Amino acid sequence: MKLTFLGAADCVTGSRHLLELPTQSKKGQPQLQRLLLDCGLFQGYKTLRERNWSGLGVDASSLDAVLLSHAHLDHSGYIPALIQQGFKGQIFSTGATHDLCEVLLLDSAKLQEEDARRANRYGSSKHATALPLYTVADAKKALAHFVGIPRDGRLQLGSNAIRFTPVGHLLGASAIAIESQGRTLVFSGDLGRSHDPLMPPPQAIAHADVLLIESTYGDRLHAPEDVSARLAQIIRNTFRRGGSVLLPSFAVGRAQALLHLLQGLRASGQLDADVPIYLDSPMADLATQLTIKHKKLLRISGAAAANLCDGVQFITKPALSQAMAKSFAGPRTKSSIIISASGMATGGRVLNYLESMAPQARHHIAFPGFQVSGTRGAKLVEGAREIKLHGHYLSVNAEVSHLEGLSGHADADELMAWLRHFQAPPAQTFVVHGDPAASDALRTRIQDELGWRVRAPQHGETVAL
After folding, report:
1. Residue 93: is the preceding peptide bond cis (ω within 30°)?
2. What is the tens place of the pLDDT at every residue in 194-228?
3. Reduced 3-state DSSP string for 108-157
4. pLDDT tier at 404 (50, 70, 90 boundaries)?
5. Residue pair 422/205 in contact by the 8 Å Cβ criterion
6. pLDDT tens string 296-337
7. Are β-strands 183-187 and 210-214 bridged in parallel, bridged antiparallel, or unpaired?
8. Which CATH number fits domain 227-406: 3.40.50.300, 3.90.1280.10, 3.40.50.10890, 1.20.1260.10?
9. Computed from CA positions of residues 234, 300, 214, 446, in that sequence, does the dihedral angle turn out positive or negative?
10. SS3 call for 381
């Protein structure tokens, strides 16, 4: 058994891990099986994003299958490029993950094409002709490779047994266990929170011989705050000074959690029923419909899921979105709440709102999700008073805050609590999917508190198991 870390080994993005293990053909002949755990995009700093253009690092056509933990683009967003490079195998995921990927991958491809057209129009590419990383046609081809797993989360690939275990975080998100010749490797994927507004807590796993554990929040604890009360306070204070609240949100997961919290504030009388709530993200609209479709996966009631969109105004047409965003630059009599993507302000319609609202001191910009280092969102929550947007620098006078309590990621204590469910120490534990400081902090805690053999691998490293 051999493991190669092709992504998320020295950073919190680009999740890709190649597992090579023995199997047997139907006739009982020994063979080598090559499985890719996740196939994500690198995001954040330019040096990381450039890795997306360097190829996978192995021959894509040699892979037998992709096992996908969940739909977020840093775990799934490279799949169309994999198809481009000759992958012919199957992509196994839960049904909810497939449904979300249908939304996310097509949108990502559309943005890739738009970025290339924009670069060619303005001559901003260092290449004579800018090309997208992949196209909408590539994304559609990729979706044809998806295969749903059985309801019990178990499937058989050759002589190797695979098990998907729900871990909260996002609709369909799962840890993946691969059992081969009596040994089990467990890949955590991204673990959710114990008290997420929408998703149930991650399910425990009892045994692993080899463990890959994510470390997104490996060096941090979520603030012990009532996020609903904090959001209510932000809204009250902002409305009092005549401003509006902008919530740059991930279209999938966090936008729906925000809608649930806002409906709760309305029901409790902390938010007037006539306060306009705008959802300006076509993808978030689709994701909300899928959330309702998969309501049995949520911790809230079916009725609460069905009511997520009550009184919410959807902004669908681009022209209306642009006009709405511009209206916040001038005097506005009605304070409003706007949820718009992207969640790290790296692109999408939220940029138009930032351009109008960031210079205005009366407004408030509250980020409800994890911010990858190097992104515009990370710079804002770190206190930047100037950001580059649409080719020029923009002053930031609006109040900016980070609703860390609304993050979908387990914090360091929650990660450790999940690890303590293992009945015996894994022979090898690898800390992945975290910035270097976060990965090393979690590695140290695992070593000191649990006494396990653990380390953080390097990008491109191959280890024998």
Report:
1. no
2. 999 999 999 999 999 999 999 999 999 988 889 99
3. HHHHHHHHHHHHHHHCCCCCCCCCCCCCHHHHHHHHCCEEECCCCCEEEE
4. confident
5. yes
6. 999 999 999 999 999 999 998 999 999 999 999 987 668 999
7. parallel
8. 3.40.50.10890
9. positive
10. helix
- Please state which CATH number belongs to domain 2-220+408-464: 3.60.15.10
Collect all residues with Cβ–Cβ distance below 8 Å to 82 and sequence separation of at least 6.
Answer: 36, 39, 56, 60, 63, 66, 142
The torsion angles phi and psi of 4, rounded to 5 degrees, stand at: -120, 130
**Comparing C-alpha atoms, which of 245, 239, 312 is closest to residue 281?**
312
130 within 8 A of 120, measured Cβ to Cβ: yes
Measure the CA–CA gap between 89 and 142, rounded to whole angstroms: 10
Tokens 């204590």 sit on residue: 413
* Amino acid identity, position 65: A
Section 54-75 average pLDDT? 96
Nearest to 21 by CA among 218, 188, 178, 143: 178
Question: Which of 64, 76, 89, 86 lies closest to 178, judged by CA?
Answer: 64
Q: Are strands 337-340 and 277-280 parallel, antiparallel or unpaired?
A: parallel
User: Domain coordinates of the chain in residue numbers?
Assistant: 2-220+408-464, 227-406
Q: Is the pLDDT of residue 76 over 70?
A: yes
Check if the beta carbon of residue 21 is closer than 8 Å to that of residue 180.
yes
In 3D space, the residue among 428, 374, 453, 13 whose CA is nearest the CA of residue 215 turns out to be 13
Q: Could you give the C-alpha distances from 182 to 17, 165, 209, 348, 430, in angstroms and in order?
A: 21, 19, 10, 47, 20
Tell me the three-class secondary structure of 351-377, residue by residue. Answer: HHHHHHHCCCCCCEEEECCCCCCCCHH
DSSP assignment string, 300-325: S-HHHHHTTTTTEEE--SHHHHHHHH
- Judge contact between 17 and 5, C-beta under 8 A: yes
**Residue bearing tokens 């508190």:** 449
